[in-house]
Amino acid sequence: MVAPNIFSVQLLASNKQIKHITSVDRVFPAIYDMIPNLIVFDYDYLSDDMEKMLRRIRTNPYYNKIKICCFKSSPNRKIDEFLKVLGVNHVIYKTELHNPTKASMSHVKSILDSAVTDLLVNASF
Fold it and tell me: Largest alpha-carbon pair distance within the chain?
């Protein structure tokens, strides 16, 4: 998970499945170390670096099978379509977590496991 430092350190320290990265320069070393199945990027936090990171991930055979999810504060058709073209598999909006419907929570849970879903729900408030 690449996002600002807003999460409980205790929660992340005890969780071996989630690594919280707060610095862009640590993204690729963390990917190399963990070999994750999924990366969650906070688009609002990384928007300036997002395109470069996505292009690097998708052109590298070592990284290009990783699923990518972007967490955004709100939909923007133009940006969301561009993210999809760059290789983002899923976009989750803060509004989906603020006003969860059964459909929106099913959507989020189909992408993420419960530990990551709980972190996003807690971070969205």
Answer: 38
